[in-house]
Design brief:
The chain is of the alpha/beta class. It has three domains: 158 residues, Rossmann fold; 62 residues, Helicase, Ruva Protein, domain 3, CATH 1.10.8; 115 residues, Up-down Bundle (Zinc Finger, Delta Prime, domain 3). It has 15 helices and eight strands. A five-stranded parallel beta sheet has the order 5-6-7-4-8, with helices on both faces. Strands 2-1-3 form a three-stranded antiparallel beta sheet, with no helix packed on it. The chain is elongated.
Length: 353
């Protein structure tokens, strides 16, 4: 016999109680706070919000608060606990309290991941039969799948993880934030922001874009690179672009910035070689290289048409020679790169060094 457990609550105003839609305990069906936000009509009795992305976790929590409580009900039906400081049985007792001046209570429990396993039993028992009129949100940083409570979060579909390495989730959040603030953007801009943002706070990064653009709200690739990328990242993008555009002055300017940022010459030559591979692939197949990002497609398509295949192969030879000298000669590394740039932008036959 298949065992079922509560998944989402639907308020029945006529009876002033909650009706649950059951799901199978044998499958994880996570309540995605990005794709299925909470509302007073439909919400999960439990949310587990974990991961290293603090902004994303706090934003998800804020949206639950705003969806389930207003200024009046928040005063009576909202409690916050630190699981390290308050006894777990006491917290669970509060979860079963009856709402006042409303239909829903919201309980926030932080640092559950820092509580010893021996003290988690009341919470584990609560997950088996959560209160009909309470939404409990567990918040922490680390998911320990060896602990039963985390196994149950997954089993019941309550776990929402917000981690920096989850590109799809980050893109979904960024799209939601940009759309909500009225930005005009293309799909490839989302991937670019994810690539550049690193450990930056998503909210701060988007606020930078907002301040820079003002009322125009029209995103383009260079605005994103200059605003969100580090100075070294911006210089890398600009250097590679200007080199392939055969713009000597701009290429030398950005190369100097890379040098000032202590960028590795080997890393720079590898980036040039990578871009060349993408352009050759584009020219040969009229399609995007499997490792190239979507936002690069229009640039690679244009560049592939501006070079003959002979020019691309001669530049491949120049890159190979420069790479060999960087690794084996005593010549100054950035002097070698400057020679490559000058040959690339000026001499059709690339008389190099």
């Amino acid at each position: 016999m298949e065992i079922t457990t509560p998944f989402e609550c639907n308020i029945d105003n006529n009876r002033n109680c909650q009706q649950y839609v059951p799901i199978s305990m044998t499958k994880s069906k996570t309540v995605s706070l990005l794709n299925k936000p909470a509302s007073t009509e439909k919400y999960s009795p439990v949310y587990a919000i974990f991961g290293d992305r603090q902004f994303m976790k706090e934003r998800a929590l804020s949206e639950i608060r705003n969806a389930l409580l207003d200024e009046i009900t928040a005063e009576f039906n909202h409690e916050k606990f630190d699981a390290k400081e308050t006894n777990s049985s006491q917290i669970v007792s509060s979860c079963y309290a009856v709402p006042m001046m409303g239909n829903i209570r919201l309980i926030e429990i932080r640092n559950i991941d820092l509580v010893p396993t021996s003290e988690l039993t009341p919470f584990v028992n609560y997950l088996e039969k959560p209160c009909d009129s309470t939404c409990v949100v567990f918040i922490g940083d680390t998911v320990d799948k060896k602990k039963k409570i985390f196994k149950d979060f997954i089993k019941y579909g309550f776990l929402n993880e917000f981690n920096s390495g989850n590109a799809a989730q980050n893109m979904a959040l960024i799209k939601k934030e940009l759309t909500g603030q009225g930005f005009k953007f293309q799909k490839n801009h989302l991937q670019m922001i994810v690539d550049l943002i690193g450990e930056q706070d998503v909210g701060i990064a988007i606020e930078k874009l907002s301040l820079l653009l003002g009322e125009s709200r029209e995103l383009d690739s260079m605005v994103i690179i200059n605003t969100i990328g580090t100075s070294a990242q911006a210089a890398v993008f600009k250097f590679v672009d200007s080199l392939f555009e055969r713009n000597l002055a701009e290429s030398l300017l950005h190369l100097k910035r890379l040098k000032d940022s202590n960028e590795s010459p080997i890393a720079v030559i590898n980036l040039i070689a990578r871009q060349l591979r993408f352009v050759i692939w584009q020219k040969s197949t009229s399609s995007l290289h499997p490792q190239a990002r979507d936002f690069m497609h229009s640039t690679l398509s244009r560049l592939s048409k501006s070079y003959s295949m002979d020019e691309l192969y001669s530049r491949h030879h120049a890159i190979f020679k420069c790479d060999l000298l960087l690794k084996s000669s005593s010549l100054d590394s950035f002097v070698l790169l400057e020679n490559l740039v000058i040959s690339w932008c000026i001499h059709s036959e690339l008389y190099f060094v």
